[in-house]
Design goal:
The complex is a heterodimer of chains A (300) and B (256).
Chain A: H1 7-32, H2 38-55, H3 60-81, H4 86-107, H5 113-121, H6 129-148, H7 150-158, H8 160-165, H9 170-189, H10 197-208, H11 215-240, H12 244-277
Chain B: E1 7-16, E2 19-29, E3 34-39, H1 45-52, E4 60-65, E5 68-69, E6 79-82, H2 96-101, H3 105-108, H4 115-127, H5 143-155, E7 161-165, H6 173-188, E8 192-196, E9 209-214, E10 217-222
Parallel strand pairs in B: 3-8, 3-9, 6-7, 7-8
Antiparallel strand pairs in B: 1-2, 1-4, 4-5, 9-10
């Protein structure tokens, strides 16, 4: 446990724990809405924010937060209004954000693509004290939203149309989800990097739902997987001198594969138990389709 | 209809893309009435229902809910909505209880989910005979059981008006009976119902009035066409020899 003696490792581990909690906490709503790649898009846009930080000699964490929040709002607006050309608009936003980042960082005095690499793939030794403060504040916001509004966000993500009829402010909640995802991207940026952030939002959730039947349990297990892989990935990268982002993502995918292998016999056992518990004659398995077409020719 | 109507549509027009789907629909549902909206695929019946709950923008006409223009209507706890089953599927597993609980949000809004709310969820599940599956994943249910869960989700807020889009489509016979029984209890308690149906089927005895749409216009508004004898059996394929030749409805498949 000698790594705890170093202050930079203490900071890195604290950041890792917060990333491990927040990324799956937001990601579960994105997966539920079938927008698993939203985080990836925000990660691209955030590069412009990092470049802007270098150019203005400001903290890249805060400029990246500002730019990615704007990007997330723009993406949500495109989803509302740009039905037909939406994907093309999103493509331009993503690659524009990436190109903007590379351009700005090269314009910055003394800046080069080498500075960008630590933001793209994560780096432990560069997590500064002010970064940790920013990460704590942003993570608190993410947790407040994802836990405090879990029922509302669940309803909107499960069935948007129905949520609207319950009178929930669906648009505001969608915007809030996008903004929270954007904030999470910048929380995770220093540890796993912008290009790998999305994996930590999506893969722990996908791994957890191999075992679960309920949303609440999926949430808890996904966060547990998230914290496990970020902490163990961070420690591994300290001893082996490998990039933390790549280590964490590969560990997450490993967890997914392991749980999937574990889940197959579990599912078989559950199915057998359900079959045994079912009284015979219950037509749960075969639904009889109603003849379609009779209403077409109502004679009046 | 002595009191003001629960739902009132006047001259409602709506387009999907450039295609007119509703072309001047007038429809009024009084308190306690059970009205079935019938018509072929593409006749506009789903669009009509979705315009009432604010999912389809109008290009003309007015809609009132409980005497309030829909745009300023906020009292959504009075409305229970059952969408077509296909629209309600998330990418993460969720239990029956979790899905039904989200229907209670029209009452709790951003407040705390209290014991009374949990009790309402349990009661709604009992109404549709799904209390024993409360902790199961909705993905493990059959089509009919899933539909029962969606109805429980609408009932959990104890609404005065139920709006249902094809509640019987793809539902097994056992679930059809449960649904018909649940609906009968609701109607007896005074709930107003507007539902899209493909055929009257087992709900026929409950229905006070049928509105038939064709090409976005109201073709018929009055007593439901009664099926007799063998025609009344569920699954019976209606063939109407008296229908004029060439009256084959347009089946674009764009709407369902």
């Amino acid at each position: 446990m000698d790594f705890l003696d170093y202050e930079f490792m203490q900071r890195a581990l604290l950041a890792a724990v917060l990333v491990g909690i927040t990324a799956p906490a937001v990601g579960i709503y994105l997966v539920q809405r079938r927008q698993a790649l939203l985080g990836d898009g925000i990660g691209h846009v955030a590069m412009t924010g990092v470049g802007l930080g270098f150019l203005l000699s400001a903290s890249p964490v805060w400029t990246a937060t500002a730019v990615s929040v704007l990007g997330a709002i723009l993406m949500e607006l495109i989803r509302w209004y740009g039905r037909t050309r939406g994907d093309i608009a999103l493509a331009m936003l993503f690659y524009g954000g990436m190109a903007g980042g590379v351009m700005l960082i090269n314009l910055a005095p003394g800046g080069s693509n080498a500075n960008l690499t630590s933001y793209l793939f994560g780096s432990l030794s560069t997590v500064s004290r002010s970064d940790v403060t920013a990460i704590c504040v942003l993570a608190a916001f993410v947790l407040l939203v994802t836990l405090g509004l879990r029922r509302q966000l669940f309803a909107v993500s499960q069935d948007e149309e129905f949520a609207r009829v319950t009178g929930l402010p669906v648009r505001a909640l969608n915007l809030l989800t996008a903004v929270t995802a954007a904030v999470t991207v910048t929380v995770a940026m220093r540890v796993v990097g912008l290009l790998l952030v999305s994996a930590l939002m999506v893969v722990p959730v996908a791994a957890a739902q191999q075992l679960t039947r309920s949303f609440a349990v999926t949430f808890v297990i996904a966060v547990a997987i998230g914290v496990t892989v970020t902490v163990s990935g961070t420690i591994t990268s300290y001893y082996q001198d490998v990039p933390p982002g790549a280590t964490i993502v590969l560990l997450t995918i490993g967890a997914f594969i392991a749980l999937t292998a574990l889940a197959a016999p579990l599912a078989r056992r559950r199915a057998r138990a359900a079959l045994a518990a079912q009284p015979s004659g219950d037509p749960a398995e075969c639904s009889i389709p109603v003849a379609r077409g009779a209403g077409d020719e109502v004679g009046v | 209809m002595t009191s003001e109507p629960v739902i009132a549509l006047r001259g409602v027009t709506a387009e999907l893309g450039a295609r007119p789907v509703l072309r001047g629909v007038d429809l009024s549902v009084g308190r306690g009435e059970v009205v079935a909206l019938l018509g072929a695929n593409g006749s506009g019946k789903s669009t009509a229902i979705r315009s009432i709950i604010g999912q389809v923008p109008l290009s003309g006409g007015t809609i009132e809910l409980f005497g309030t223009p829909r745009r300023s209507f906020r009292d959504w706890a009075r409305v229970g909505y059952v969408p077509q089953r296909t629209t309600a599927a998330g990418g993460v597993p969720a239990t029956v209880t979790e899905v039904v609980s989200s229907g209670r949000l029209s009452r709790t809004r951003f407040g705390v989910f209290r014991k009374a709310d949990r009790e309402a969820v349990r009661k709604a599940l009992e109404l549709v005979g799904m209390a024993d599956r409360a902790k199961d994943s909705v993905n493990a249910l059959s089509g009919g059981q899933h539909q029962r869960v969606l109805i429980a989700r609408a009932l959990v807020a104890e609404p005065e008006l139920l709006i249902m889009d094809e509640p019987m489509a793809g539902v097994d016979l056992a679930s059809q009976e449960v649904l018909a029984r649940t609906l009968r209890q609701q109607v007896e308690a005074g709930t107003t119902v507007l539902l899209v149906l493909h055929e009257l089927g087992p709900l026929e005895p409950l229905i006070d009035r049928a509105v038939v749409l064709r090409d976005g216009c109201v073709l018929h508004d009055g007593p439901p066409p009664r099926a007799v004898g063998q025609h009344a059996l569920p699954g019976h394929d209606h063939v109407h020899p008296h229908a004029p030749a060439g009256a084959e409805p347009i089946r674009t498949g764009l709407l369902s």
